[in-house]
Amino acid sequence: MASPAPSPSATKPPASPKVTRRTVRLLRGHVTVQLVAVVMPDAAKGRLSITAHVSHGIPRYRYDLSGGICPGGREHVWVRGVTDNHGDALLTGPIWVLPAIKPFYVSVDPQPLVSGPNAPITGIAGILISGQATPLVGQQEPCL
């Protein structure tokens, strides 16, 4: 007696998610941002985790990483935290579900009032799910 042929779903291994990690240093290294994204192949959306560490910031001060979709999306707080007496903090927030091919931006709030050639990197903009992002310098408008 012949054994039945395997079904196509039994022979094809499940698709593995693509995991992207990116570290960005803002404000001359005082804010380190970690982006971790997970996307299934051919998925329209992915999950993005954003965390940040503030070192030697303003003591007992609330820092936000704010941003939104490019262009012109509603701005919201990605992560938030309050520094301790030494100016150090871990900024955390929820896991975000985002479109896999749309650009977004993330920037430090409050931003330093510095522009020109000495302005620090204050944020990033790009397709965050894939780790493709470019720096925002000073008070540069995101998504241009």
Structural overview:
There is one protein chain. With 144 residues, this protein is mostly beta strands. The chain has a single domain (17-137), classed as Sandwich (Immunoglobulin-like). Helices cover 3% and strands 48% of the residues. It has 1 helix and 10 strands. The chain has one helix at residues 8-11; strands at residues 18-26, 31-39, 45-54, 62-69, 76-82, 89-91, 96-99, 104-109, 121-127, 132-137. Strands 1, 2, 3, 6 and 7 form a 5-stranded antiparallel β-sheet that branches. Strand 9 and strand 10 (132-137) form a beta hairpin. It is elongated. The model has no long low-confidence stretch (mean pLDDT 85).
Q: What number of structural domains do the residues give?
A: 1
Number of discrete helical segments: 1
From the N-terminal CA to the C-terminal CA, the straight-line distance is 68 Å
Main pleated sheet: 5 strands, antiparallel
Helical coverage, percent range:
under 10%
The Cα radius of gyration reads: 20 Å
Give the strand tally: 10
CATH architecture: Sandwich
How much of the polypeptide forms β-strand, as a percent range? over 45%
Tell me the CATH topology. Immunoglobulin-like
The computed structural class is mainly beta
* The CATH C-level class name: Mainly Beta
Spatial shape: elongated
Low-confidence stretches: none
- Mean pLDDT, as a whole number? 85
Order of helices and strands: HEEEEEEEEEE
